[in-house]
Amino acid sequence: MSTVVLLAVTGLGLGGLYFLVASGLSLIYGVMRILNFAHGAFLTVGGYLGYEAGHRFGAQANSWPVFALMLVVGTVAGGLLAVLVELLLIRRLYEREIEQVLVTVGLGLAAVALVSGSWGSDARTFPAPRWMARTTSIFGADVPNLRFACIVAAVLVLLGLQLLLGRTRYGLIIRAGVENRSMVAALGIDVRRTFTAVFGLGGALAGLGGVLTALYNSTVSPGMGDSLLIFAFIVVVIGGLGSVTGSAVAAAGVALLQQFANYYASAGIGDLTVVAALAVVLLLRPSGFVGRQVRLA
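Given the sequence above, the corresponding structure tokens read:
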């Protein structure tokens, strides 16, 4: 029983990380129809700048105020980088899918090289509050507190996005832009500004995910964004392209499947099982859990 509880909670914690990255991808695709392969770069930059913000405090880096500062810095860094990329590059490539893919893939590779050149290719220890290193006993299972932090962050982001998209005027504009961009533009609304804001929000979520991923791994490294981006894309496809809620469900399912398969089979089988699940979804339900390709809520 304790083993099942431990695997379940740790799986949900990992799923929280998947969702934080996948939610930005899903949001960007749902509004802008862009598969952003540079999303991992926003995650990596957010993680490293969050690390820099905490590292400068030395021995006090393990305090809660400094940790909050790292979250804010990482989130803002990811958002600002995304806005810059949209304004300088993506805005010129709307309706040009091949060029979008080439540019975003190139940005992802360039970001890894830039981070390696600035901070080195070796992983660096990421500071965190001492509470994160402790455990909480649930039904006999000693669960690391860090997993609860990831779960709470994912739930808050999901609720925040649902509130934004479903209960605010700006969310109404976003959903209207998904259905009919020309009509929204005809009403005098600057669609381009909306796209920039959505792209920035997606980057901010990736930056937040970067800080929490570094916390989850206890280190920051140049390639951490690329490895997580693969599973984020799997989550987005399984959940349904453009569906934030679908991504949340898929993230939990993928992470739990991965955790249980790795434990009860052997290490590495979990990744294979996730890829097999992706193949099954593509064959039987190509539009994902939500049943249609673009659905933000």
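Residues 89 and 103 are 8 Å apart (CA to CA). Try to locate this feature in the token string yourself.
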